[in-house]
Amino acid sequence: MTGAALPGCTFQLRYLGGTSGTGGTVIGTKVTGKNGTAMWTGLNPGAYVLSEIKAPTGYVMDTASTNVVIRQGGDTQTLYFTNTPSTILVIEKYIEGTTTPLKGVTFLVTGSSGAVVGSSNGEYILSTAAGISLTAAIQFSKEECRSTCLLTNSRF
User: Fold this and answer.
1) Bridge partners of 90?
2) 97, 88 in Cβ contact below 8 A?
3) Do residues 66 and 50 touch, judged by C-beta distance below 8 A?
4) What is the pTM of this model?
5) What is the dihedral of CA 65, 68, 74, 76, to 10 degrees?
6) pLDDT class of 88 with cuts at 50, 70, 90
């Protein structure tokens, strides 16, 4: 994990009216800037849910939501979210000695540790007529970047 700031993360803040749980009144949506930070100020004391609702292109959200309580008297909370880089893997298989693609070939995709990758137990089938499989958001790297959200009931 690099801890580098990540711009372009979209967050939504919901006010739960002093209770914990899900739902609540949407306070607003913000996108992290160049410094990887989004900030809400002037919040009422009470319970909130902060949700990352969209990761920037090329990243997968690690933690979608977290609960936080803002207390009386100028309370400030700093929340950190991480996103893992993703990539698109293109698999092509051809009949030997030709440029004719094969359809229906199954590939097993594993990481450098040998563990299967993806949500299909590592199996990917060339299903297009062109014999190409596009597999999105496969996490090949453990490197993470983070975004920061600041919540406060102080008025700036």
Assistant:
1) 134
2) no
3) yes
4) 0.60
5) -50
6) low
